[in-house]
Amino acid sequence: MTATAPVLTHRRKMVIYVPVLVGMFMASLDMQIVATALPTIAADLGKLELFGWVGAAYLLATAAVTPFYGKLGDLFGRKKVFMVAIGLFVIGSLACGFARSMESLIAARSCRGWAAAG
User: Fold this and answer.
1) d(CA 97, CA 90)
2) What confidence score (pLDDT) does residue 84 get?
3) Domain that holds residue 73
4) Are 54 and 42 in contact (CB under 8 A)?
5) For residues 96 and 109, is the Cβ–Cβ distance under 8 A?
6) Element (H, E) at 90
7) 26/86 Cα distance (integer angstroms)
8) What is the largest CA-CA distance in the chain?
């Protein structure tokens, strides 16, 4: 017995592609905004020696957590995991907005990186 691949309609393909593209857009927009605004943010918060850690914390967290999201997607379903990741990304964005020091900004960016991995 051979199994045939399910045929996807155009509408079903769009239902799959659009959320993935929105997630990718959010992640790339995040990096572009931070790269542009970070010098001003770091000057306002002080401790310019920690400037590099803002981006590094995000990238390290994303790289470390991505495999776990893959396993969670297998266990609980990719749609649920993706929705939770988007929610965590929004919460991380709020935490970044409310950061009052470079250390808290680095921690918030790390949390945001955990979410962006999904």
Assistant:
1) 11
2) 92
3) 38-116
4) yes
5) yes
6) helix 78-97
7) 9
8) 67
- Cα separation, 112 vs 46, whole angstroms: 21
The number of domains in the chain is 1
Structure tokens at 105: 């900004």
Alpha carbon 115 to its chain centroid, in Å, reads 4
Low-confidence ranges of the chain (pLDDT < 70): 1-3
- Residue 64 domain-assigned? yes
Query: What's the CA gap between 92 and 37, in Å, rounded?
Result: 17
pTM: 0.76
**What's the token pair of residue 111?**
């949390």
Residue at 5 is within a domain: no
Q: How many residues does the chain have?
A: 118
DSSP state of 117: T
Report pLDDT for 26. 79
In a domain, 2, yes or no: no
Distance of alpha carbon 58 from the chain centroid = 9
